[in-house]
Specification:
By secondary structure, the protein is α/β, with parallel strands linked by helices. About 50% of the residues lie in helices and about 15% in strands. The chain folds into three domains: about 1-130 and about 205-285, HUPs (Rossmann fold, 3-Layer(aba) Sandwich), CATH 3.40.50.620; about 320-410; about 425-495, no CATH class. The longest helix is centred in the middle third of the chain and has 28 residues, at about 305-335. Bound molecules: adenosine monophosphate and zinc ion (ZN).
């Protein structure tokens, strides 16, 4: 299996350190607010990775940390007049609830920073002992000038970093890029401070991940991930903190997800442009959101719109309906139904084989879920097209088994759609499509009538050999979940 490694900027064959076992650490949430769908994008990407590696037979240990002490938590608690620990506990619980609602597999460990202060202090002590860190005014800093390869993950020199960052003058630091391993407690931060050899204080953000990841997964991790904003400085710093102590490779494969964007900007708490997971799940099933996420490759950005989510929901229904059709037919026809038509049997058999091959080829290629999904859509179309009576029980079962297997890998259970979707749902959009082609129909027309009028219009265009325009209409209908089939000069349609 190939995975794109941010460190080498290449797709590499994935080989874990220990045969058959994989350790994965993904940077978890800072718990001071509701998780938004940008977070969900990243965790869904790693959820699919974990599911797929397990499907391949690896024993996976999956670790996601919980950052429950942080400047942002302290600031938020102050704002709300709450105890910072209580605030963090509440949002930690909410994080788990929301991730469960999204259908994510649980991680094997969710280490909290506050439960690992001892481990963190020990790691900072080692860095001080080895001369990579220094104590200054009750805080401890990592000295970036002591190492040669600082910047190897983000591929920048110290000069680039200084030029790229808004560096504040800080007299406690020897070099502007030095970063805090331990932060001295300021006035009013007594509730969130611990005793240490350097006085009362709390850990820096980067050191917590170094300490907790190696504690649960050993000195070398197979996979470490997060969204791409973490490449620098967070992951860059994590590397230094571990490698300077162990003198071993910290992470074999660095994986980074692209952002979920809104209106061209990264969705983030600080920009205030976020939509919470709860908000989306109030209106859409988790499968619709997951399908929207998986339609993009995990390294690509996603432009979130409700329109795209609507479309993803219809795509999901298309898959679920195909699986439902197979399930219903198998239930009715039971075992051993004789195959009537060799040709139909072969057709479905070939479609399943091809879909399987394409699906796994895509997953092996750096988890190309867009291609994996495309193979499922093709199969769904074929399942709706063939006469199952002719294809036979054996083939129908094979197709269903594959849908269920793929659903398990992608975390996309292909169950019966909850509600029967009717064409009425897209009636307004059909009306506006008709109107754009100069066909005005009143509100009293049924959705079927509007669709028939559009099909007649398209037939007309085809009659005049304006195939480009006719194809455009077919495409627009397909975006609404309507598939047209031309048989001679008759056109039939199917919804979802
Ligand atoms: P945070 O709680 O902000 O530290 O984020 C938790 C995880 O979600 C980190 O891996 C972030 O990089 C990731 N993340 C935050 N915002 C987005 C976004 N808009 N798109 C994708 N991932 C994100
Ligand atoms: Zn981290």
């Amino acid at each position: 299996m190939l995975l794109y490694n941010t460190l080498t900027r290449r797709k590499e064959e994935f080989v874990p350190l220990e045969e058959g076992k994989v350790g994965i650490y993904v940077c978890g949430p800072t718990v001071y607010d509701y998780p938004h769908i940008g977070h969900a994008r990243t965790y869904i990407a790693f959820d699919v990775l974990v599911r797929y590696l397990r499907w391949k037979g690896y024993k996976v240990t999956y670790v996601v940390n919980i950052t429950n002490v942080d400047d942002k938590i302290i600031a938020r608690a102050k704002e709300l007049g709450k105890d910072p620990r209580e605030l963090a506990d509440d949002f930690e619980r909410i994080f788990h609830e929301d991730m469960a609602a999204l259908g994510l597999v649980r991680a094997d460990f969710y280490p909290r920073v506050t439960d690992h202060i001892e481990d963190i202090i020990r790691l900072v002590e080692k860095l001080v002992e080895k001369g990579y860190a220094y104590v200054s005014r009750g805080s401890v800093y990592f000295s970036v000038e002591k190492v040669k390869d600082y910047g190897k993950l983000s591929r920048q020199s110290l000069e680039d970093m200084i030029a790229g960052a808004r560096v504040e003058v800080d007299k406690s630091k020897r070099h502007p890029m030095d970063f805090a391993l331990w932060k001295r407690a300021k006035e009013g931060e007594k509730d969130v401070a611990w005793d240490s050899p350097w006085g009362r204080g709390r850990p820096g953000w980067h050191i917590e991940c170094s300490a907790m990841s190696t504690k649960y997964l050993g000195e070398t991790l197979d996979i470490h991930g997060g969204a791409r904003d973490l490449i620098f400085p967070h992951h860059e710093n994590e590397i230094m903190q571990v490698e300077c102590v162990t003198e071993k490779v910290f992470v074999r494969y660095w994986l980074h997800t692209g952002f979920l964007m809104v209106g061209g900007e990264k969705m983030s708490k600080s920009l205030g442009n976020f939509i919470t997971v709860r908000e989306v799940l109030k209106k859409y099933p988790p499968e619709a959101f997951r399908l929207l996420v998986l339609k993009a490759h995990y390294r690509s950005p996603i432009d979130f719109t409700y329109d795209a989510l609507e479309k993803a929901q219809r795509s999901y229904r298309r898959l679920a309906n195909a699986a439902a059709r197979l399930r219903a037919w198998i239930q009715e026809h039971g075992e051993g139904e004789g195959v009537e038509m060799e040709e139909e049997r072969r057709l479905l058999e070939a479609a399943v084989e091809k879909a399987k091959e394409e699906f796994f080829e895509a997953m092996e290629d750096d988890l190309s879920t867009p291609r994996a999904l495309a193979s499922l859509f093709t199969l769904a179309r074929e399942v709706q097209r063939v006469d199952l009576n002719d294809a036979g029980v054996g083939e129908a079962k094979k197709a269903l088994e594959f849908f269920e297997e793929a659903g398990e890998i992608l975390g996309l259970p292909l169950m019966e759609p909850e509600e029967e979707v009717s064409l009425d749902k897209v009636k307004d959009r059909l009306l506006s499509l008709a109107s754009r082609y100069g066909v005005e129909m009143g509100k009293e027309a049924s959705a079927e009538e509007v669709l028939e009028a559009i099909i007649a219009l398209r037939a007309d265009l085809r009659g005049r050999r304006e195939y480009g325009e006719a194809d455009k209409i077919r495409e627009e209908l397909s975006n609404l979940g309507i598939t047209l089939e031309d048989k001679g000069d008759r056109t039939t349609w199917r919804f979802v």
